[in-house]
Write a structure and sequence with these properties.
Elements (H helix, E strand, L loop, with lengths): L2 H4 L1 H10 L3 E3 L8 H20 L9 H10 L4 H29 L7 H24 L3 H12 L8 H9 L6 H30 L16 E3 H26 L29 H9 L3 H13 L4 H4 L11 H20 L8 H36 L4 H18 L1 H15 L1 H4 L21 H34 L16 H30 L6 E8 L2 E10 L5 E6 L21 E4 L3 E8 L4 E5 L4 E5 L5 E6 L4 E7 L11 E7 L1 H10 L1
Parallel strand pairs: 3-7, 6-12
Antiparallel strand pairs: 1-2, 3-4, 4-5, 7-10, 8-9, 8-11, 11-12
Helix pairs in contact: 3-5, 3-9, 4-5, 5-6, 5-10, 6-7, 6-9, 11-12, 11-14, 11-15, 14-15, 15-16, 15-17, 19-20
């Protein structure tokens, strides 16, 4: 029909879905794209219909969903279609991504197509999460609370972002209204991105093919051959979707989400939908909240690294046995992560999750580049038989080494850091504790507000320092590599000073230090502020022991409660007691009580320090210093004199035991 060739819009459609030339050997694995387009159409149509009857209100959201199910004509069908097509959407997306990984669809000239596809996948996850919250059942409410709270891991501004997303201090009407608006708009953004995805594909090299070579030699028009081929899988999809919708519509749902949201009752286990479980498992596998969030986001964005970490000279792994084995291990590990995401956070699931996370990132950053370099060498071996074997092998090794060197920054840095961090529990000890541990790396578990502030400040600064470290390190390595006399024999002679860049790298650190100063000064003033104490404790340093006095309490002899605290010799230690840290008389304090320490010394300068409480105050003879603490939990906290005060400086441990107020009163009566 001539109109398809002349009309501007029909001409565009004709070039994409009628006359578009496609390789003649495409298999049914290339039908996932049309299935995803069909799913998106179903989601938009059913979503707009559901929006006509939905009420984004904390009081009415759940009831409006039940109204759709029970009162609206065929409302149950529309809702079940929307919910189950969402699951089918993600299932087909995973197959689509898997096919792309298997056949190397991320390689040039289709890198832009792969990048847009990754953005679409990330946006799909956000859209699916927003829709899951709108049901406002128990799992929806607590899933929204947990996932949005992840933003609080962002240093300094995290909590503000969370409250901005919520529109208050918890999930409320404002939250549902925002989520509903975004959930309504994002599918249309997805449709626009899908169109860009299609345009980028057809305007570069078109579809790939199962063989991995150019398909320009044998092509067929899209219509009618591939249109009918797509219709076959679309009809099969409709059949399978109908079976689920009509016979088992709730098979993929969570039973807790059929209970109205109750902010006063937490479900036994908070888990997202099945298609988000692998990323949720990665999040839970890392004990640090901020690093867990970063790892979860990177587990999606790491797809963007494939065009750079795959160093193979041929597209796809269909003819590469080693790569096939690694790929199937990766798929099996992904399914294991999916199972672990639904389990409780307990042993052995924690350890299995950490191992699976290492394997997941190791596939992208270690296995793919290593195996591709190895297979490059193996494929070239037959050619070496017809040439000078020694020279060819030497040339291959040299070329492969240069390729590996060009990518060593990203691959080695990322994989080694992730591997060391995930296995730190087997080498170093960063578990929460109130005492020093052998090979301990982190702070002791905070027990006072000031110590919590110190730890938070440290973590926030370290987050940005690590970014700066790797940024500067990458720049230095790139300069050394690219501007050496060997790599660039001419250009390095003409390099000169740049005033602008020198100003930038001088002023930028100063600005960073100023930014760090604001929270630092705030914390210092808060630590120096002495609140109205409920009780006081006088701590006096001697060579080499501490003496304590409770001036607010009297003993049975109508005298102040006071005692000396000496180090327990190693020969007298009971089983389980800490060497060089245990004392014969502990300082007993009540929890959740403002306590003022008055600190002095009788002979030389000492220092009263207890890391878990955030206390470090020098003790001077003839001078009184003070420190205020509010211990927020029960426990035993160990410290030492942190000033070199003589030969037995290490024999002045400090042990503070926090107990409940009832136990503290009992202890006072015993004195």
């Amino acid at each position: 029909m001539r109109i398809f060739k002349s009309h501007p819009l029909l001409k565009l459609m004709n070039s994409y879905i009628i006359d578009s030339p496609q390789p003649s050997n495409l298999s049914y694995l290339w039908n996932f794209g049309s299935l995803l387009a069909f799913c998106l159409i179903i989601q938009i149509v059913t979503g707009v219909t559901l929006a006509m009857h939905y009420n984004p209100s904390v009081l009415e959201a759940f009831n409006s969903v039940e109204h759709i199910m029970r009162d609206v004509n065929n409302g149950w069908l529309i809702r079940y279609l929307h919910a189950n097509t969402a699951s089918a959407f993600f299932f087909i997306v995973y197959l689509h991504i898997g096919r792309g990984l298997y056949y190397g669809s991320y390689n040039s000239p289709r890198t832009l197509v792969w990048t847009i596809g990754t953005v679409i996948f990330l946006l799909m996850i956000v859209t699916g999460f927003l829709g899951y919250v709108l049901v406002y059942g128990q799992m929806s409410l607590w899933g929204a609370t947990v996932i949005t709270n992840l933003m609080s891991a962002i240093p300094w501004i995290g909590q503000d972002i969370v409250e901005f997303i919520w529109g208050g201090f918890s999930v409320n009407n404002a939250t549902l209204n925002r989520f509903f608006a975004l959930h309504f708009v994002l599918p249309f953004v997805l449709a626009a991105l899908a169109l860009m995805h299609l345009i980028a594909l057809h305007d570069t090299a078109g579809s790939g093919n199962p063989v991995g070579i150019s398909g320009n030699y044998d092509r067929l028009p899209f219509a009618p051959y591939y249109i009918f081929k797509d219709l076959i899988t679309i009809f099969l999809f409709i059949l399978l979707l109908s079976v689920i919708v009509f016979f088992m519509p709730n098979v993929l749902g969570d039973t807790d989400n059929y209970v109205m949201a109750n902010p006063m009752q937490t479900p036994p286990a908070i888990v997202p939908e099945w298609y988000l479980l692998p990323f949720y498992a990665i999040l839970r596998s890392i004990p640090n909240k901020l690093l867990g969030v970063i790892a979860m986001i990177l587990s999606i964005l790491i797809l963007l690294a494939m065009p750079f970490t795959d160093l193979s000279r041929s597209r796809g792994i269909q003819f590469k046995p080693l790569s096939k084995i690694a790929f199937y291990i990766f798929v099996a590990n992904f399914l294991v992560l999916m199972q672990l995401g639904a389990k409780h956070v307990e042993s052995p699931f924690i350890e299995l999750g950490q191992i699976s996370t290492v394997i997941y990132f190791g596939y992208y950053l270690v296995l793919v580049p290593f195996i591709s370099l190895l297979e490059n060498s193996l494929i070239e071996l037959p050619d070496a038989e017809q040439k000078d074997i020694t020279s060819v092998k030497s040339s291959n090794v040299t070329n492969n080494f240069k390729v590996l060197t060009n990518n060593i920054n990203v691959i080695t840095y990322s994989s080694v850091i992730m591997f060391i961090y995930m296995l730190n529990g087997y080498i170093f000890n960063i578990d929460n504790c109130d005492t020093p541990r052998p090979w301990g790396l982190y702070f002791q578990d905070s027990a006072t507000p000031q110590m919590e502030g110190l730890v938070e400040l440290h973590d926030n600064i370290m987050f940005y320092l690590v970014i700066i470290l790797f940024g500067v390190g990458w720049i230095l390595i790139s300069i050394i590599k690219n501007y050496s006399s060997v790599e660039s024999p001419i250009s390095h002679k003409y390099l000169n000073h740049g005033t602008l860049i020198e100003l930038i790298w001088t002023i930028t650190p100063a600005l960073i230090l100023i930014l760090i100063a604001f929270p630092s000064f705030k914390l210092l003033y808060l630590m120096d502020e002495i609140s109205d104490p409920a009780m006081s404790v006088l701590a006096e340093g001697h060579q080499w022991y501490w003496s304590y006095q409770y001036p607010d309490f009297l003993n049975s002899d109508e005298e102040f409660i006071e005692f000396d605290s000496y180090l327990v010799p190693e020969s007298d230690l009971e089983e389980g007691a800490l060497r060089m840290l245990e004392v014969d008389n502990r300082v007993i304090l009540p929890e959740l009580t403002h306590v003022r320490f008055i600190i002095t010394a009788a002979d030389v300068i000492h220092s009263f320090a207890c890391p878990a409480l955030g206390i470090k105050c020098d003790a001077y003879p003839g001078r009184l210093n003070q420190a205020s603490v509010l211990i927020n939990r029960e426990g035993t906290f160990y410290g030492q004199c942190s000033e070199i005060c003589g030969i037995l400086h290490s024999s002045m441990p400090i042990v503070i035991e926090s107990v409940s107020i009832e136990k503290f009163l009992t202890w006072l009566e015993e004195q």
